[in-house]
Amino acid sequence: MIVAGIDTLGSGFLRFAQIVGQIALIITETCYWMFKPPLRIRAIFEQMSEIGVSSIPVVLITSIFTGMVVALQTHTGVSRFGAESMIGGIVALSMTRELGPVLTGLIVTGRVGSSMAAELGTMKVTEQIDALYTMATNPTKHLIVPRVVACTLMMPILVIFADAVGMLGGYFVSVFLLDINPNLYVEKTFELLEMNDVTSGLIKALVFGNIVAVVGCHQGFYTEGGAEGVGKATTRAVVIASISILINDYILTALLLGREIF
Fold first, then answer.
1. What residues make up the domain containing 250?
2. Total of domains in the chain
C-alpha cells in the first residue's frame, strides 16, 4: 500500500511537472513568434471579434445584475449605521477592483477558454496540427499567437464595460428602489473612486486574459484520445483557468496593495 501511494504521488508530480513545462514552452514560443514577421493582423482581429465582441452580451448581463446585488446587500449593511450615501462608492470600488475583472475572467473562461480547447483539440486529434508541420507552418504562430494576443487585449476592454454597467446597475437599484438621492449617489461614487482603483482592475484583466488563452491553447494543443479527449481537455481548460484566475487574483491584489502574499 505504501509503495502504491508513493507511485501515485510520483506519477502526479511528474504529470504536474510535464504540464508546467508544456505551458512554459507555449509561453516562450508565443513570445518569440509574436514579434517575428509576418504579423497575422487579420487573424488577430478575427479572434478579437470572436473573443471580445461576442462576449459582450453575457458580460453585460452578468455585470449589471452583480452591481444590483452589491447595491442591495450594501444597503442592508450600511443602513444600520445611517451611511446609505456610501453605497455608490462601495459599488464602484467593488466592481473596479474585484468583481469586474474576476467575474469577467470567469465568464470568458467558460465561453472562450473552452472554445479554444475544443477547437485546437479537434484539430489535434484529426491531425490538422501535424499537417501544419508538414507544410512548414509553425502551429504556434498560426494558431496560438492570435488567440493569446486577442484575449489579452480584449479582456481589459470587457472589464471596462463590466465596471460601467455594474455601477449603472447599482445606480438603478439605489435611486429607483432604495430612494437614494441620485446627485448624492454620483457625488460619493466619484469621491471614493480613484484612478488607481480602475487601473488595478485593468492590470488584473491583462493577466487573466493571458491565463485564459494560454490554458485553453495548452489543453487543446496537447489533446489526446479522440473525441473523448477533446471533451476532457475542454473541461480541464475551464477548471484550470478558473482556479488560476482566483489564485492570481489574490496574488495580484496583495502586490498591488503592497502587502505580503503569505
1. 45-256
2. 1
